[in-house]
Amino acid sequence: MIEKIHEPDLDEKLHRSPRGSFCVSRKDISGALGTEGQPFEVDWVRIPAGMTNFPYHAHQVQWEFYIVVSGRGIVRRNNRTFEVEAGDVFVQPPGTAHHIRNPSEDEDMVYYVIADNPVCDPCYYPDSDKWAIRPPGKLGRMTDAEYYDGEE
């Protein structure tokens, strides 16, 4: 574990969806400190003007705490929306579907997100009816099955 880092010195990693609907740049602060696997994760996140950070999703176990540093955004949460701006702080509890859109035409939105880093966090995507399970990082859709299907 590293004693301290200087966040501006960290590299940004760009994540863009194949068709460009979603885009964020992230700095893995926890990883840079060597605190992966600890009881919380911290990321610095930048959403470019006009973009949405991630598809609408709901963590089933993980809590997320947001601190908006600059710009403004529109948070979609459980099919309602609210605006946030620099200085605002908000929480996404488990089971709360959410994403953030930057409505600006020329200003990026920057925030920190602190997550409680559960050992396993199934994540549901209501708009596409799919699930992500991490670990191991698998995505898929549920199909109906009886309890004993494939067991005997």
What does this structure look like?
There is one protein chain. With 152 residues, this protein is mainly beta. Helices cover 3% and strands 41% of the residues. It starts with 12 loop residues before the first strand and ends in a 12-residue tail after the last strand.
Observed structural traits:
single chain, 152 residues, globular, 6-stranded antiparallel β-sheet, mainly beta, 1 helix
Choose one word for the global shape.
globular
Helix tally? 1
Task: Report mean pLDDT, rounded to a whole number.
Answer: 94
Q: How many strands, which pairing sense, and closed or not: the largest β-sheet?
A: 6 strands, antiparallel
Helicity range: under 10%
How many individual β-strands? 13
Across the major sheet, the strand order is 1-2-3-10-5-8
Distance between the termini: 47 Å
Structural class based on helices, strands and sheet pairing: mainly beta
Give the uncertain stretches in residue-range form.
Answer: none
Q: Approximately what portion of the residues adopt beta-strand conformation?
A: 35-45%
> Radius of gyration in whole Å, from Cα?
17 Å
H/E series: EEHEEEEEEEEEEE
Quick overview:
This protein has one helix at residues 29-33; strands at residues 13-16, 23-28, 41-47, 58-59, 64-70, 72-77, 80-85, 89-92, 98-101, 109-115, 123-125, 130-133, 138-140. The protein has 152 residues and is mostly beta strands.
